[in-house]
Amino acid sequence: MMSNPIRVLVWNEGRHEKKNPKVQAMYPNGLHDAIAKPLREAGFSVKTATIDDPEHGLTEAALAETDVLTWWGHIAHKEVSDEIVERVQKRVLDGMGLVVLHSGHHSKIFRKLMGTTCDLKWREADERERIWVVAPHHPIAEGLGEYFEIPREEMYGEFFDIPQPDELVLVSWFQGGEIFRSGCCYQRGRGKIFYFRPGHETYPTYYQREVLQVIVNGVNWAAPGNSPKLIFGNHKPLEVIMPHEG
Ligand code: ZN
């Protein structure tokens, strides 16, 4: 194991698991447990939190010791406190990585960081998804083939109301004919953000090798580097400014 492993906080709303027997059966210990497992196996230091933890498990202290936050939410976006969303945003702008999964596209934190509605088309019809790698050089594509398939997933379709990604790594095609920008990279302040589409709660998507590989790669990519601290505001000159003569 690395001497300083990347510290990951896997955040999951955790409500479907409490209400829907189908989801309970698919993810008996919660989606966060399934998402955390491959990250632990990859050598990261991993903790989990859910919406019903005090301060949603996103205390100042918890965020201070997080390098990359992963986010899965769906039916309770509105219940996430605005104050905590601001706290997470501040940490992202200061360098914490953020990996937003599936229906996290409509989370307060993702919409705030994007500045758009993040609306999209959707359909639950048990259809095949084929995810194409459109940036084979990108670290998030490491270990994937030209494409991979998920046998049954929910459809998300364009238009996806997001700002143009800084880098687009993955594009999905669905059996019903739609396409979708499925792997989108952004920089906000010093923080890196990766949006990754698959992961509907009633499918075994978070047990599929390629999906887990993308999440591990996304965490590695989003982890803070040693980029210079950003300095703003009124600033003294670096050199003496000679007065103009005459
Ligand atoms: Zn879904």
Describe the secondary structure blueprint for this structure:
Elements (H helix, E strand, L loop, with lengths): L6 E6 L3 H4 L1 H6 L4 H11 L3 E6 L9 H5 L3 E5 L9 H12 L3 E5 L6 H7 L6 E13 L13 E11 L9 E8 L4 E10 L2 E6 L12 H14 L24
Parallel strand pairs: 1-2, 1-3, 3-4, 4-9
Antiparallel strand pairs: 5-6, 5-7, 7-8, 8-9
The site of zinc ion has 4 residues, from loops.
Give a description of the structure.
With 246 residues, the chain is of the alpha/beta class. The chain has 7 helices and 9 strands; from the N terminus they run βαααβαβαβαβββββα. It has a domain at 7-115 and 183-222: 3-Layer(aba) Sandwich (Rossmann fold), CATH 3.40.50. The longest helix is centred in the last third of the chain and has 14 residues, at 209-222. It is globular, with a radius of gyration of 19 Å. The protein starts with 6 loop residues before the first strand and ends in a 24-residue tail after the last helix. The mean pLDDT is 96. It binds zinc ion. Residues 102-103, 154, 200 line the site of zinc ion.
What's the short version?
By secondary structure, this protein is an alpha/beta fold. The chain is built from 7 helices and 9 strands. A 9-stranded mixed sheet has the order 2-1-3-4-9-8-7-5-6.
Secondary-structure arrangement, i.e. CATH architecture of the domain at 7-115 and 183-222: 3-Layer(aba) Sandwich
Number of separate strands: 9
Shape: globular
Report the span from N to C terminus: 67 Å
Helicity range: 10-25%
Write the CATH homologous superfamily of the domain at 7-115 and 183-222: Class I glutamine amidotransferase (GATase) domain
Computed over alpha carbons, the radius of gyration is: 19 Å
The neighbouring-strand order within the major sheet is 2-1-3-4-9-8-7-5-6
The CATH topology of the domain at 7-115 and 183-222 turns out to be: Rossmann fold
Give the CATH level 1 class of the domain at 7-115 and 183-222.
Answer: Alpha Beta
Name the structural class.
Answer: alpha/beta
